[in-house]
Write a structure and sequence with these properties.
The complex is a heterodimer of chains A (427) and B (274). In chain A, 68% of the residues lie in helices and 1% in strands. Chain A has 427 residues and is an all-alpha fold. By secondary structure, chain B is mostly helical. The radius of gyration of chain B is 24 Å and the shape is globular. The chains are: A mainly alpha (427), B mainly alpha (274). Chains A and B meet through helix 2, helix 11, helix 12, helix 13 and helix 15 of A and helix 1, helix 3, helix 4, helix 5 and helix 6 of B.
Chain lengths: 427, 274
């Protein structure tokens, strides 16, 4: 009832402010009503928002934090870290730094934290691991009269007399580091603190990111090339027929990804169905290599993602009245021209949205390349898992993950802007 | 259909387009058709032709502790995650569609984001978060993360249903004397039920098919069916996988039929109301 009142106020020529039945100002009452409604809406969304904050957003922020986290040297060599900050970074550090190092290493040896420091420093200079471990084993040191800790260290191993090694310690005496992010982009930090491209033989990740985008691009293109014609055909069939055929699209969509990957292995492997069929037909003499390479990954990924193109394209195409095309043709357009000028422009937004979604999902793929690809097909996700499970290098896992996340979120932001997240539909 | 006066080129185009589309449909279903017969093979390799048939791989699947445990775990985690995701997601969808408030579209994007964030990132993040709390290798953490992954589907399907919902029905019900609870139970719920249930099915399928988070977060005791299959495919691919796959395909057929039935019902209710 209240909602009708404002329009009435335009027709009534009353100067006195309108009031509700209880004598309260109507505008105040309406504003309160509106606020209550908003509060109710927020209260309904709040449980999910809080839930996702705790189980989803906070973990992801922890991952982002890990990509710059550098705790090893600061926590396990605390005195050295503090003193080395004032080092001029040219000649060798002062005697106090060496003494602090001896104290820290003694403490670290007792606390059994030497391997962590050694592992971290070894990332910057290989061989640092053994140097730290060797030195720590000799702790605590008894100095002879007149002998300095610095002499003793250099006598133990001449690398302690090399400022470069101390430089690495100084660099890592901060609780954060760009090291992992730089490494994920094939960069390294110069002594001046600026990034430079790593030597060619040490580069790895740029090409992995490139490969990820390349594979995703082609999977998206193949999905469009196969998905759109099919969607067009289904959308223009009589409803009974198209509903029946749609089941053939939806059934694989609802089937476990692992089932499908297993089936593709059965079909594509060396002794698989496709190879034996082709050989029996005499088309090929030797089995083709179809699985555990790029071909297998493309086939399986297109198969998994194809419904994500077909379903939105189908619903867009279904909403275009067939009379438009007929009108264009009856007005003298060639059917292809009519398709290109009338039909295609109306579908382009929906189709592009589907393609963008497929691309976004693609760049995070892990299972399919892991099971159906050779090392040459592994994408960024694989290396995130690799650094987490195999080498337990959280910094690299987190840095690669963060970059992948940034790429995904940028594209998702674009998607939300173009399509609107609230317009996302599921067939 | 082609008109009788179609030119040869039009005929060729028409038929080649049709054949192309049928080939794509074959491409879509062939993997599902190929694996089912192999589960009845007596052979120890997943190879055609099948020389003799047996049910030994089903015996292996249903008789083997590892497969049964993983199936049981999947049936612990997925329903729990579905229940949580459906409850939280439906409430949120009702809130999101009922009123405008500042930051709503951003919030919506955030609520949908678990669908697009690469699962590996979710898995590693979840491990970083739950391991220090002593909750890695627990059903609890696994259920929570699977819930987060399933929530977007519920929010999307329920919001879509609610957008087609005519708010005058609530006013009509109230004006006829029903209290809000009765209105909700007898008017709102039956109308949004198809959306809620199909969201729940999506959430269930998401959890039931989830491997990556499980790889990071679950210990051997929480191994789910997809996790077990992942290990099986990676190590030695035996026909027991085909048996598991066949069970899963039957399961997805059941899910799909339920969903189609719901869709039909929803359309009927909507047209009846209109």
């Amino acid at each position: 009832m209240l909602e009708v009142m404002p329009t009435m106020s335009q027709t009534l020529t009353v100067n006195a402010p309108l009031t509700a039945a209880d004598g309260e100002l109507l505008t105040v009452k309406l504003a309160r009503e509106h606020r209550n409604k908003q509060l109710k809406a927020v209260a309904l969304v709040a449980p999910l928002a809080i839930f996702l904050l705790l189980t989803f957003l906070v973990p992801i922020f922890m991952l982002l934090g890990r990509s710059v986290d550098n705790p090893e040297v600061v926590t396990h060599l605390p005195a050295t870290s503090q003193l080395i900050a004032s080092w001029d970074r040219r000649a060798l550090p002062s005697e106090e730094v060496f003494q602090a190092m001896a104290r820290d290493l003694t403490a670290a040896k007792e606390a059994k934290t030497v391997p962590e420091v050694a592992k971290r420093l070894n990332m910057d200079i290989s061989g640092f691991r053994s140097l730290i471990q060797k030195t720590a084993r000799k702790m605590p040191l008894e100095l002879a009269a007149g002998e300095t800790m610095r002499d003793r260290f250099i006598q133990m191993d001449e690398r302690w007399g090399d400022p470069d090694h101390w430089h690495v310690i100084a660099k890592n005496a901060k609780s954060w580091t760009p090291y992992y992010l730089y490494s994920s982009l094939d960069l390294r930090e110069t002594k001046a603190g600026t990034p430079e491209l790593a030597p060619e033989e040490e580069r790895a990740f740029i090409s992995i990111f490139g490969r990820t985008l390349w594979i995703s691009f082609w999977v998206t293109v193949f999905c469009l090339l196969l998905g759109d014609p099919l969607a067009y055909w289904l959308a223009n069939l009589p409803a009974r027929k198209s509903n029946l055929l749609m089941i053939l699209v939806l059934l694989p969509f609802w089937t476990s990804v692992l089932v499908r990957v297993a089936s593709w292995i059965v079909l594509l492997q060396r002794e698989g169905l496709i190879n034996s069929a082709l050989m029996n037909l005499g088309i090929i003499g030797e089995p083709l290599q179809l699985a555990f390479n790029r071909v297998g990954v493309y086939i399986a990924m297109v198969h998994i993602l194809l419904p994500f193109v077909i379903l939105p394209a189908y619903s867009v195409m279904k909403s275009i009245p067939p009379t438009y095309m007929r009108a264009a043709i009856s007005l003298g357009d060639h059917p292809f021209a009519a398709f290109w000028k009338i039909y295609f422009p109306q579908t382009v937004a929906g189709v592009a949205a589907g393609a963008l979604l497929v691309f976004i999902m693609c760049i995070g793929y892990y299972i399919t390349p892991a099971l159906l690809g050779s090392p040459e097909e592994q994408m960024v996700s694989y290396y995130v898992a690799f650094y987490t499970n195999v080498t337990i290098n959280w910094g690299m896992a987190a840095a690669l993950g963060s970059l992948l996340l940034i790429a995904t979120m940028t594209l998702y932001g674009l998607y939300s802007k173009l399509v609107g997240a609230n317009k996302l539909s599921l067939g | 259909m082609l008109p009788t006066y179609a030119s040869p080129i039009e005929r060729i185009w028409f038929w080649s387009f049709r054949i192309f589309c049928v080939l794509i449909l074959i491409f879509l279903v062939s993997p599902l058709l190929v694996i089912v017969p192999l589960s009845f093979s007596a052979d120890t390799f997943l190879l055609y032709p099948i020389k003799s048939f047996s049910l030994r791989w089903y015996e292996e699947f249903f008789g083997n502790g590892i497969w049964l445990t993983s199936l049981k775990n999947s049936f612990i985690v997925a329903p729990a995650a579905t229940l949580l995701a459906t409850t939280l997601g439906t409430l949120a969808a009702v809130g999101l569609t009922s009123s405008d408030f500042p930051g709503k579209s951003v919030l919506m994007s955030v609520l949908i984001s678990p669908m697009v964030v690469p699962v590996v990132i979710v898995g590693v993040g979840a491990y970083l978060f739950f391991a220090p709390l002593g909750l890695s290798n627990s059903y609890f953490a696994l259920i929570l993360v699977h819930t987060a992954l399933g929530v977007p589907f519920v929010v999307i399907t329920v919001s879509a249903t609610l957008r087609g919902f005519n708010a005058n029905l609530i006013r009509a019900s109230a004006s006829l004397g029903a209290n809000p609870i009765t209105t909700y139970r007898r008017i709102v719920l039956p109308l949004i039920a198809p959306g809620v249930i199909s969201g729940a099915l999506f959430a269930f399928a998401t959890s039931f098919d989830e491997v990556v988070v499980t790889l990071f977060l679950a210990g051997p005791e929480q191994t789910t069916l997809p996790r077990q299959m992942f290990g099986g495919i990676k190590e030695n691919i035996s026909p027991a996988i085909a048996a598991a796959a066949t069970v899963l395909i039957l399961f997805s057929i059941a899910l799909l039929l339920t969903l189609e039935w719901l869709r039909g019902r929803a359309e009927k209710t909507r047209t009846n109301v209109a």
